[in-house]
Design brief:
Layout lengths: L3 E7 L5 H14 L4 E5 L5 H11 L8 H25 L3 E5 L2 H11 L4 H12 L6 E6 L2 H11 L10 H17 L4 E5 L4 H17 L1
Parallel strand pairs: 1-3, 1-4, 2-3, 4-5
Helix pairs in contact: 1-8, 2-3, 3-5, 4-5, 4-7
The chain binds thymidine-5'-diphosphate (TYD).
Length: 207
């Protein structure tokens, strides 16, 4: 495919949103044809699935249901948004993708990376990120940041132990896919982090 697929990953409160905003502004100023999208969501069906996933009333949701719902939202997104944009030669920036499922459902919910990968094989239809940026921030700090911003959703509300498992699973992914995933220290100034983001993105765009 002609375009480039960049995914942004991190634990809750790792500062992804701020950095994504700055990155999109940078790409725009550079005249790069880019689209920003997110998971779960990114399509009308996906946004409905997102509402179910983040609803605090659904305490009874099983881990497997959760994994399949994220994957369902992903397949709709891949078909409806990601593939067409990549075919049109665009740079697609996606706030969370398959690594989130491996970290949250595989790691924290303990379904295991293999099972989550198996479910997602159907969802992604062979589309993997060209590059992933992982915002590396201790989970304790991330959750504190989120609490200051807004009332926590179903996943954010999980115990610290859950977020630690998410973080450990991300670290393992960084070890397993060093070619694809770049970790960026997110305990730094917005400006310094942005500079690092740009370095990685520029390198990819030159390839
Ligand atoms: P969101 O509000 O988008 O969180 P953030 O701003 O931190 O990205 O909510 C998405 C939540 O869903 C977040 O807690 C991570 C979780 N998630 C999974 O558990 N599995 C997945 O596959 C994806 C995409 C997200």
């Amino acid at each position: 495919m002609k375009g480039k697929f960049i995914t942004i990953e991190g634990t809750d409160g790792s500062g992804k949103s701020t950095q994504i905003e700055l990155l999109m502004k940078y790409l725009d100023e550079k005249g790069v044809d880019s689209v920003l999208t997110r998971e779960p969501g990114g399509t009308p069906i996906g946004e409905k699935i997102r509402e179910i996933l983040l609803d605090k009333n659904f305490k009874e949701m099983t881990d497997i249901t959760e994994a399949f719902l994220y994957a369902a939202s992903r397949n709709q997104h891949v078909r409806e948004v990601i593939i067409p944009a990549l075919e049109a030669g665009k740079v697609v920036v996606c706030d969370r993708f398959i690594d989130s499922s491996i970290a949250y459902q595989g790691g924290a919910r303990e379904l295991g990376a293999d099972m989550v990968m198996d479910i997602n094989k159907f969802a992604i239809e062979g589309v993997m990120p060209d590059m992933t940026l992982f915002f590396d921030l201790a989970p304790e700090k991330g959750i504190l940041r989120k609490k200051k911003e807004h009332e926590l959703d179903r996943l954010e509300e999980e115990k610290l132990d859950f977020h630690k498992k998410v973080y450990d699973a991300y670290k393992k992914l960084c070890e397993d896919y060093p070619e694809r995933i770049n970790a960026i220290d997110a305990d730094d100034t917005v400006d310094n982090i942005h500079k690092k983001v740009i370095e990685y993105v520029d390198k990819l765009l030159k390839e």
